[in-house]
Write a structure and sequence with these properties.
With 300 residues, the chain is of the alpha+beta class. The chain contains seven helices and twelve strands. It has two domains: 135 residues, Aldehyde oxidase/xanthine dehydrogenase, molybdopterin binding domain (Aldehyde Oxidoreductase, domain 4), CATH 3.30.365; 141 residues, Aldehyde Oxidoreductase, domain 4 (2-Layer Sandwich), CATH 3.30.365. It is elongated and about 80 Å long. It comes from marine sediment metagenome.
Length: 300
């Protein structure tokens, strides 16, 4: 642990590719501290470093992660989404990023509902259909919430602006004075309800206005020189620390993982329950290929 702490990145550190980590909080020291405290790492490390009697021996190990978010210099990094309000007031979301159990449906629904100020029960998430869903790249690399979520937000914001213009024309109120919340549209300064969300939709329908919007979000610019391997390959990074306590039966080689402690800097959690599920899933995947799978190599 002491060796890691002497060599980890901090704010404004320079990476091997020459990137200065100055646009986000570099939290390696913090996640290590959290994991060490929660796992009682120091005490157990001292205890397990001493000679142990019997066939079963225990040890405790640490690993830390520093990983770029999204595709980085690998490819064009952007996502699109369509948000449409139907005549019955229901809202459809379509995005090219796939729901694989990680919680995209939930998160995208939350984002759209918050932007429009409506109940999530209104919103239906359409499964990916390559004939109609906007191209959004691969569902990998911790990019879906950042890119797809912002694309959904942008599309929903356009719809909100359209409805605001309709309400402004009807009630002679400035669009800047409108607040969308709790299924209604309010006048901000007076906190007075002007019209319900459904009534605003009806006004749009009466005018023949099609309430559909396309949102697009492109990741922040990066710079990368492939020839020399230098530049800013990613716009931001995530950090984590995991500690595993393991018991090995030296008589038969049986391995038992007693406990895993995981501490991750996740940024802003849109849905903490889904996020925890992602961490648990990652831990179990690592556990699987760490003790149950085998990679055979030849000549190195």
């Amino acid at each position: 642990m002491e060796l890691r702490l002497r060599n980890i990145y901090h704010n404004n550190s320079i990476t091997a590719s020459g990137q200065k980590l100055d646009n986000h909080q570099v939290s390696l020291e913090e996640v290590i501290s959290k994991a060490v405290e929660s796992s009682n790492y120091k005490e157990k490390y001292r205890e397990y470093s001493k000679p142990q009697s019997g066939d079963k021996k225990r040890g405790i190990g640490m690993a830390i992660s520093f990983r770029g978010c999204s595709l980085g210099a690998e490819a064009t990094d952007a996502a699109g989404a369509i948000v449409a309000i139907q005549r019955d007031g229901s809202i459809l979301i379509s995005c090219g990023l796939a729901e694989n159990g990680e919680g995209l449906k939930t998160v995208f629904t939350q984002i759209a509902a918050e932007e429009l100020g409506v109940d999530i029960k209104r919103i239906n998430y359409m499964e990916v259909d390559t004939s109609v869903s906007p191209e959004s790249g691969a569902t990998v690399a911790s990019r879906s919430t950042i890119l797809g979520g912002n694309a959904v937000k942008n599309a929903a914001h356009q719809l909100k602006e359209t409805l605001a213009e309709i309400v402004t024309a009807e009630f002679k109120i400035r669009t800047d004075d409108l607040d969308f919340k709790n299924e209604n549209i309010y006048e901000k300064n007076k906190n007075q309800k002007i019209i319900s969300f459904d009534e605003a939709i009806n006004l749009a329908n009466q005018e023949g206005i099609f309430l559909s919007a396309y949102g697009w979000y492109k990741a922040p610019d990066i710079s990368w020189d492939e020839e020399i391997g230098q530049g800013r390959p990613y716009f931001t990074y995530v950090y984590g620390c995991q500690i595993a306590e393991v018991e090995v039966d030296t008589a038969n080689g049986q391995i038992e993982v007693l406990k895993i402690t995981a501490a991750h800097d996740v940024g802003r959690a849109i849905n903490p329950a889904c996020l925890k599920g992602q961490i648990y899933g990652g831990v179990m995947m690592g556990l699987g290929y760490g003790i149950m799978e085998e990679v055979e190599t030849a000549n190195g």
